[in-house]
Amino acid sequence: MTSSPKPSRKLLAIAGALSVVAGSFAAVPATFAANISASVPGGNSQNSTEECRHIVVSATQYQGLPGQYQLAYSAATSSLYTSFSSGRPPVLTGGVGTWNVASTPSLATVYQFPTTDFTARGATAPTGKQIESPYGIAYDEATGYVWVTQTRVNKISVFDPATNKIIWSSAEGDVNHPREVRIDPSSGKVFVSGSGGISVFDTTRHALVKKIEFTDAKGESDIAMNMHVDSADGKLYVPSLSAGTVKVIDTKSYEVEKTIQLHKENAEAALNPSDVTIDKSLKEIYVSSQGDRKGANSAITVYDLETGAYKKTIPFGNQALALASDEARDLLYVTDYGTGNVGVVDARTGTVISQVSTGATSGANDVLVTADGSVYAVARSIEGASAIETDYTIDKTTGEYRTSSTEPKGKDNADSPITPGVMVKINTTVETTAKPAAQTSSEELVKTYADGAKLYAVKDWTTGETLKLRGEGFKTQDGSKGSVLAVKLNKGRISAKEEPKLNGAEGNSAGVWAYIQADENGNFTAELPYPTTENSNLKENLKSGDKVSVFLLSGSMVEGDTARGGEALSATVAEKKADTATTCAPAETTQVAAAPSGVITTYPAGTKLSLPDSNEPTPAPSESAKPEPTTPAPSESAKPEPTTPAPSESAKPEPTTPAPSESAKPEPSTPAPSESAESNEVVHEYKDGAKVYFPKTWDGQKLTFRGEGFKTRDGKGSIIAVKLNKGAISAKEEPKLEGVEGNSAGVWAYIKADENGNFTATIDRPTVANSNLTEELKTGDSVAIYLLSGSLAENDNARGGVAVEYTFSTENHVPAPKVSEPKASESANAPVTNPSAAPSAPADSKEQAKDQPAKDQSKAPVDSMNSETQKKDNTAPKTSGSSSQNVTSSSNGSTSSNSSKSSLANTGASGVVIAAGIGVLALVVGATVLVARRRKA
Length: 937
Fold this sequence. Notes:
This protein has one helix and 64 strands. It is mostly beta strands.
């Protein structure tokens, strides 16, 4: 998108009465891509002399199936299919999982395959049983059937998910060590790669049509690797492993039209080409190669689509394996089997924009791009995962499926834990903007946000001069208007003597240095005044070399605004430097850690696939074979993306992984609280209908309150920052959001509502011991509680203003005076500035001894409140003080008050106390009483 050359400026309030002006560069922000999770800005690339591309990558991690290999996708049903086969022969755990990915991925069905005899190497008779386990997988949109390659038993099969029946399997000799299967809807043919070349089958008759032989330079049989079908042009692209070539095959005549000799950067090291894809708009062929599996020749090599001429090499990882193309946006995705990472490549420039850590240390087997641009990748295991208990495992002797969390492995058949693999959903946003016609001499891109908004600035803050900022793409989520940004210096620790106002009104957060209003195109230019002892709370002036962190916060000051936060730049106080011109910022590879989804995968009981009658002919596909779609199907022109089966035999065995961390627990489901406030409560209602109920008096050292309806626009639980007196009362120990520091000073606690939008929270009363108070609260003092949401979770509702205010009315056990009921018409919905959560860091995992089998660990541990702990809290000495600013957020289970809970953050010096259900945790009555009065925002 090009930028508008016509400037539009708007004056806003700023500390020190200096002006901030809205700017002039038009840009439309990309969709917000994170889930309080791992959204990391990517590099920028130059497409032409006139425009720049800004690419942002984020990723979310889900617990998968053990030993995952390949992916297939059904656009009609929004279903993802994963093949899995755990370990080396005999394969005792395996099958196909079906995931519903219309919203949050959930495992719906796991299909169990038939078993067969296994004969150990050197034996003359069967020594046990094994699963005819799948590796390669493809979904036929025309019939609703699923094709799989059963590599270890030299077979391919077709099954019908609608009837749970295998409708056909190949005959002996049809395939040899089959790897991948690809369906060509135009020709009605199925291509299976493997040892010796390609086997071609008919999709209707399931008959072997043709064998296309592959040989290496010595004339010996070679292995056909992962394929790409260009159905529109009738071409099949296949790498030949030992030959180091790619064959281009006509899908009608089965003739090899062209053989491309592949390039090697290191002539002495092996190449081992593994996968291939194309981009017609760029007229290029891309080939991934594993190299020597130590890094040499591990890369994507690029060739001209028409001539096959070599163009360039894009190095990546230690063992580049699977490859997929998002041709609509000129992006490539490549897996590194050696490290477990996934690379995101800008195909226009041939640069690796981001490297996504899946959570696995190796075994990234496959990546798939759907027609709508969604990207999924799978790896064989998760670092730090505990064993799962399922019935996808067979008894080695009888071949019967059994429920187990272990399986015998190795020469001594020692019980080894069955650990899950990982599935990662990758979100990538791309924005194209015109190059700035002119920028200040030393201006550079300092921050790209998850939605694509960009901030340009001069990193050196010249003593006594304003700091120039320029923003592009700062728009609300629906793109209808510009964002409102709160600027904080050092998280608000450098604050203005004269508090800035937003549209003439005070904000809800202390420490704001300035407010910025982006124009209708989401752009602005701004100049921040230099902080001094005259205009701020600084005790002495800044010196050359001092650092000032600048935070831009949005999401809660405009309804429907995009959540943004984090440090925008670290400015260095320095002498004035000469101006220089800038263009597109150079591309740099960013490291993106897939954030745990917080959703525990539920493993359903296995569904056995029945074999067809030996005399039964292959049935023709019927209308009933294709499930009804749950979401609109994309256009028929959508290009099927390649998937990747098992790597070579030398692939590493599955590691035994330790138990998952506490963060793996799902958020509990909580029934909604009562519709009305109890007699001893006051209620505050927000514009979106969310309600919070406070006791009329704050008796003692803790305050417990509850909320209902605190949900995001897409139906998830909100994340809420709690501030006391707009943050003027702050904690001595700064609270953290999922182990990460927030972006704003003065937050007393964080609360996470459950999936129904409900919570019960307990916070501590501020004291000299746990806060910045210099003396204890006394009669007449007031504590206003602000609940702020909107910028801590994607698509959250903006809420703010004073929810309740407590005033000390008496001391020494004197009863609290009667409180008047609040008016039903009152509500607090003033604009609010509150922090935006930094990306969640994966929780530390607990080490598990390798030789200790893991048992009964299929479910994540659920903390519950110890009865003795409750007893101690209920009988604690009465006091008017509090120990820390801890908060706990609890949720009633659907069947019991002692339910699972959600404790988002440990926010203070003392230990976290968990309320196991609403009303279960007794309050400690103190020596002083605070009386609540609700205030209108």
